[in-house]
Give the backbone structure.
Amino acid sequence: MTDRATGTAVVTGASGGMGAVFADRLAARGHDLILVARNRPKLETLAGELAEQTGRRVEVLAADLADRAQSVVVEDRLRSDESIELLVNNAGLSGFSPLTGADPDAAAEMIAVNTTAFTRLAIAALAGLTRRGRGAIINLSSALALNIYPVSAVYSGTKSYVIAFTQALQQELGDGPVRAQLAVPGGVDTAFWDGSGIELESLSADAVMSPEDAVDAVLAGFDAGEPVTIPSMPDITDWTSFDQARKDLIPKLSRAHPADRYTP
Protein backbone atom coordinates (compact mmCIF):
# COMPACT_ATOMS: atom_id res chain seq x y z
CA MET A 1 0.00 0.00 0.00
CA THR A 2 1.08 3.55 -0.65
CA ASP A 3 0.18 6.75 1.12
CA ARG A 4 -2.34 7.47 -1.64
CA ALA A 5 -3.68 4.08 -2.52
CA THR A 6 -5.86 3.34 -5.50
CA GLY A 7 -8.75 0.95 -5.57
CA THR A 8 -11.55 0.08 -3.21
CA ALA A 9 -11.10 -1.71 0.11
CA VAL A 10 -13.87 -3.90 1.51
CA VAL A 11 -13.87 -4.11 5.31
CA THR A 12 -16.13 -6.62 7.04
CA GLY A 13 -17.12 -6.19 10.66
CA ALA A 14 -16.69 -2.46 10.06
CA SER A 15 -19.29 -1.09 12.47
CA GLY A 16 -16.88 -0.99 15.43
CA GLY A 17 -13.64 -2.19 16.97
CA MET A 18 -10.77 -3.04 14.67
CA GLY A 19 -13.03 -2.99 11.62
CA ALA A 20 -13.91 0.67 12.13
CA VAL A 21 -10.24 1.52 12.66
CA PHE A 22 -9.27 -0.36 9.48
CA ALA A 23 -11.87 1.72 7.64
CA ASP A 24 -10.46 4.95 9.07
CA ARG A 25 -6.85 4.08 8.26
CA LEU A 26 -7.57 2.82 4.76
CA ALA A 27 -9.65 5.87 3.86
CA ALA A 28 -6.80 8.09 5.08
CA ARG A 29 -4.44 6.13 2.80
CA GLY A 30 -6.61 6.90 -0.20
CA HIS A 31 -8.88 3.89 -0.54
CA ASP A 32 -12.53 4.20 -1.35
CA LEU A 33 -14.44 1.88 0.97
CA ILE A 34 -17.24 -0.64 1.08
CA LEU A 35 -18.19 -1.20 4.72
CA VAL A 36 -19.90 -4.46 5.67
CA ALA A 37 -21.62 -5.29 8.98
CA ARG A 38 -25.06 -6.05 10.39
CA ASN A 39 -25.61 -2.67 12.05
CA ARG A 40 -26.65 -0.29 9.27
CA PRO A 41 -27.03 2.84 11.48
CA LYS A 42 -23.48 2.48 12.83
CA LEU A 43 -22.13 1.86 9.34
CA GLU A 44 -23.93 4.90 7.94
CA THR A 45 -22.61 7.12 10.74
CA LEU A 46 -19.05 5.90 10.18
CA ALA A 47 -19.38 6.21 6.40
CA GLY A 48 -20.56 9.81 6.69
CA GLU A 49 -17.72 10.75 9.01
CA LEU A 50 -15.05 9.15 6.86
CA ALA A 51 -16.37 10.61 3.63
CA GLU A 52 -16.39 14.08 5.16
CA GLN A 53 -12.93 13.73 6.71
CA THR A 54 -11.14 12.14 3.76
CA GLY A 55 -13.18 12.92 0.65
CA ARG A 56 -13.24 9.23 -0.24
CA ARG A 57 -16.28 7.39 -1.55
CA VAL A 58 -17.63 5.27 1.31
CA GLU A 59 -20.46 2.84 0.64
CA VAL A 60 -22.47 0.88 3.18
CA LEU A 61 -23.36 -2.73 2.49
CA ALA A 62 -25.35 -3.92 5.50
CA ALA A 63 -25.39 -7.71 5.77
CA ASP A 64 -25.65 -10.40 8.41
CA LEU A 65 -22.94 -12.78 7.25
CA ALA A 66 -24.48 -15.64 9.22
CA ASP A 67 -27.34 -15.51 6.71
CA ARG A 68 -26.32 -17.21 3.45
CA ALA A 69 -28.52 -15.01 1.25
CA GLN A 70 -27.07 -11.82 2.72
CA SER A 71 -23.51 -13.16 2.51
CA VAL A 72 -24.03 -13.97 -1.18
CA VAL A 73 -24.80 -10.30 -1.88
CA VAL A 74 -21.37 -9.36 -0.52
CA GLU A 75 -19.74 -12.23 -2.38
CA ASP A 76 -21.26 -11.10 -5.68
CA ARG A 77 -19.92 -7.60 -5.13
CA LEU A 78 -16.44 -8.92 -4.38
CA ARG A 79 -16.44 -10.93 -7.61
CA SER A 80 -17.84 -8.28 -9.90
CA ASP A 81 -16.61 -4.87 -8.73
CA GLU A 82 -13.54 -4.10 -10.83
CA SER A 83 -12.40 -1.37 -8.43
CA ILE A 84 -11.86 -3.71 -5.44
CA GLU A 85 -8.21 -4.28 -4.55
CA LEU A 86 -8.33 -5.23 -0.87
CA LEU A 87 -10.52 -7.36 1.38
CA VAL A 88 -10.09 -7.03 5.13
CA ASN A 89 -11.72 -10.27 6.27
CA ASN A 90 -12.35 -9.07 9.81
CA ALA A 91 -15.96 -9.95 10.71
CA GLY A 92 -16.32 -12.42 13.54
CA LEU A 93 -18.47 -13.51 16.45
CA SER A 94 -17.22 -14.38 19.93
CA GLY A 95 -18.54 -16.62 22.65
CA PHE A 96 -16.89 -18.52 25.46
CA SER A 97 -18.52 -21.28 27.47
CA PRO A 98 -17.98 -24.94 28.33
CA LEU A 99 -19.22 -27.29 25.64
CA THR A 100 -21.23 -29.16 28.25
CA GLY A 101 -24.55 -27.37 28.14
CA ALA A 102 -23.48 -25.02 25.34
CA ASP A 103 -26.07 -23.58 22.95
CA PRO A 104 -25.52 -25.43 19.66
CA ASP A 105 -27.31 -22.72 17.68
CA ALA A 106 -24.94 -20.05 19.03
CA ALA A 107 -21.98 -22.28 18.18
CA ALA A 108 -23.32 -22.84 14.68
CA GLU A 109 -23.81 -19.10 14.15
CA MET A 110 -20.21 -18.45 15.24
CA ILE A 111 -18.96 -21.09 12.81
CA ALA A 112 -21.16 -19.63 10.06
CA VAL A 113 -19.56 -16.20 10.39
CA ASN A 114 -16.01 -17.05 11.48
CA THR A 115 -15.38 -19.87 9.02
CA THR A 116 -18.14 -20.34 6.43
CA ALA A 117 -18.74 -16.70 5.51
CA PHE A 118 -15.04 -15.97 5.98
CA THR A 119 -14.21 -18.67 3.43
CA ARG A 120 -16.90 -17.70 0.94
CA LEU A 121 -15.85 -14.04 1.02
CA ALA A 122 -12.20 -14.94 0.53
CA ILE A 123 -13.02 -17.18 -2.43
CA ALA A 124 -15.21 -14.49 -3.98
CA ALA A 125 -12.53 -11.85 -3.51
CA LEU A 126 -9.87 -14.10 -4.99
CA ALA A 127 -11.97 -14.63 -8.10
CA GLY A 128 -11.98 -10.90 -8.76
CA LEU A 129 -8.43 -10.14 -7.61
CA THR A 130 -6.79 -12.90 -9.63
CA ARG A 131 -8.81 -11.96 -12.72
CA ARG A 132 -7.59 -8.38 -12.39
CA GLY A 133 -4.07 -9.45 -11.47
CA ARG A 134 -3.68 -7.27 -8.40
CA GLY A 135 -4.73 -6.86 -4.81
CA ALA A 136 -4.64 -8.51 -1.40
CA ILE A 137 -6.61 -10.10 1.41
CA ILE A 138 -5.94 -9.48 5.09
CA ASN A 139 -7.34 -12.36 7.16
CA LEU A 140 -7.89 -11.75 10.88
CA SER A 141 -7.22 -14.67 13.20
CA SER A 142 -6.67 -14.39 16.95
CA ALA A 143 -4.12 -15.26 19.59
CA LEU A 144 -6.84 -17.57 20.95
CA ALA A 145 -6.13 -19.82 17.98
CA LEU A 146 -2.93 -20.68 19.86
CA ASN A 147 -3.78 -19.84 23.47
CA ILE A 148 -6.70 -22.25 23.89
CA TYR A 149 -8.95 -22.10 26.96
CA PRO A 150 -11.38 -24.77 28.22
CA VAL A 151 -14.23 -22.40 27.28
CA SER A 152 -12.87 -21.44 23.85
CA ALA A 153 -13.29 -24.67 21.90
CA VAL A 154 -15.52 -23.23 19.17
CA TYR A 155 -13.95 -19.76 18.94
CA SER A 156 -10.38 -21.08 19.06
CA GLY A 157 -11.29 -23.72 16.50
CA THR A 158 -12.62 -21.13 14.07
CA LYS A 159 -9.57 -18.92 14.45
CA SER A 160 -7.21 -21.90 14.05
CA TYR A 161 -9.02 -22.50 10.78
CA VAL A 162 -8.14 -18.97 9.66
CA ILE A 163 -4.45 -19.71 10.23
CA ALA A 164 -4.48 -22.98 8.29
CA PHE A 165 -6.62 -21.48 5.51
CA THR A 166 -4.33 -18.48 5.07
CA GLN A 167 -1.13 -20.52 5.14
CA ALA A 168 -2.52 -22.78 2.41
CA LEU A 169 -3.65 -19.76 0.40
CA GLN A 170 -0.23 -18.16 0.68
CA GLN A 171 1.34 -21.31 -0.75
CA GLU A 172 -1.18 -21.27 -3.58
CA LEU A 173 -0.58 -17.61 -4.43
CA GLY A 174 3.21 -17.89 -4.19
CA ASP A 175 5.00 -14.78 -5.45
CA GLY A 176 2.14 -13.73 -7.72
CA PRO A 177 0.52 -10.30 -7.88
CA VAL A 178 -2.21 -11.18 -5.35
CA ARG A 179 -1.17 -11.80 -1.77
CA ALA A 180 -2.67 -12.77 1.56
CA GLN A 181 -1.63 -11.57 4.99
CA LEU A 182 -2.42 -13.42 8.21
CA ALA A 183 -2.96 -11.14 11.21
CA VAL A 184 -3.00 -12.64 14.71
CA PRO A 185 -3.90 -9.96 17.26
CA GLY A 186 -4.10 -10.70 20.96
CA GLY A 187 -6.56 -9.10 23.36
CA VAL A 188 -7.92 -5.84 21.96
CA ASP A 189 -9.99 -3.27 23.86
CA THR A 190 -13.26 -3.48 21.91
CA ALA A 191 -16.88 -4.52 22.40
CA PHE A 192 -15.85 -8.02 21.24
CA TRP A 193 -15.76 -9.10 24.89
CA ASP A 194 -19.17 -7.74 25.90
CA GLY A 195 -21.39 -10.65 26.88
CA SER A 196 -18.91 -13.12 25.41
CA GLY A 197 -18.38 -15.07 28.61
CA ILE A 198 -14.96 -13.50 29.22
CA GLU A 199 -15.18 -9.89 30.32
CA LEU A 200 -12.45 -7.44 29.36
CA GLU A 201 -12.00 -6.46 33.00
CA SER A 202 -10.86 -9.99 33.81
CA LEU A 203 -7.81 -9.64 31.57
CA SER A 204 -4.53 -8.09 32.63
CA ALA A 205 -4.15 -4.54 31.35
CA ASP A 206 -0.72 -5.56 30.09
CA ALA A 207 -2.37 -8.11 27.78
CA VAL A 208 -4.85 -5.76 26.08
CA MET A 209 -3.97 -3.49 23.14
CA SER A 210 -5.95 -0.55 21.79
CA PRO A 211 -7.67 -1.23 18.45
CA GLU A 212 -5.77 1.69 16.93
CA ASP A 213 -2.39 0.20 17.87
CA ALA A 214 -3.45 -3.27 16.71
CA VAL A 215 -4.61 -2.06 13.30
CA ASP A 216 -1.59 0.18 12.81
CA ALA A 217 0.67 -2.79 13.55
CA VAL A 218 -1.22 -5.01 11.08
CA LEU A 219 -0.93 -2.38 8.36
CA ALA A 220 2.75 -1.82 9.13
CA GLY A 221 3.26 -5.56 8.71
CA PHE A 222 1.28 -5.42 5.47
CA ASP A 223 3.44 -2.60 4.16
CA ALA A 224 6.56 -4.58 5.08
CA GLY A 225 5.28 -7.60 3.15
CA GLU A 226 4.98 -9.82 6.21
CA PRO A 227 3.02 -13.01 5.53
CA VAL A 228 2.19 -13.19 9.24
CA THR A 229 1.78 -10.21 11.56
CA ILE A 230 1.44 -10.73 15.31
CA PRO A 231 1.17 -7.21 16.77
CA SER A 232 2.24 -8.18 20.31
CA MET A 233 5.23 -10.37 19.42
CA PRO A 234 8.58 -8.59 19.92
CA ASP A 235 10.56 -11.07 17.81
CA ILE A 236 8.75 -12.60 14.83
CA THR A 237 11.33 -15.40 14.74
CA ASP A 238 9.42 -16.89 17.68
CA TRP A 239 6.56 -17.48 15.24
CA THR A 240 8.83 -18.76 12.49
CA SER A 241 10.39 -21.22 14.95
CA PHE A 242 6.93 -22.39 15.99
CA ASP A 243 5.88 -22.83 12.38
CA GLN A 244 9.13 -24.59 11.51
CA ALA A 245 8.47 -27.08 14.31
CA ARG A 246 5.14 -27.84 12.63
CA LYS A 247 6.87 -28.34 9.29
CA ASP A 248 9.42 -30.64 10.91
CA LEU A 249 6.56 -32.96 11.90
CA ILE A 250 5.36 -33.38 8.32
CA PRO A 251 7.60 -36.34 7.31
CA LYS A 252 6.46 -38.16 10.45
CA LEU A 253 2.71 -37.62 10.03
CA SER A 254 2.02 -40.09 7.24
CA ARG A 255 3.96 -43.34 6.80
CA ALA A 256 3.23 -46.81 5.50
CA HIS A 257 3.45 -48.48 8.92
CA PRO A 258 2.45 -47.60 12.50
CA ALA A 259 5.12 -46.28 14.84
CA ASP A 260 6.95 -48.95 16.80
CA ARG A 261 5.12 -48.08 20.03
CA TYR A 262 1.85 -49.22 18.45
CA THR A 263 3.07 -52.61 17.26
CA PRO A 264 3.72 -55.75 19.35
The radius of gyration is 19 Å. The chain is about 45% helix and 15% strand. The mean pLDDT is 93.
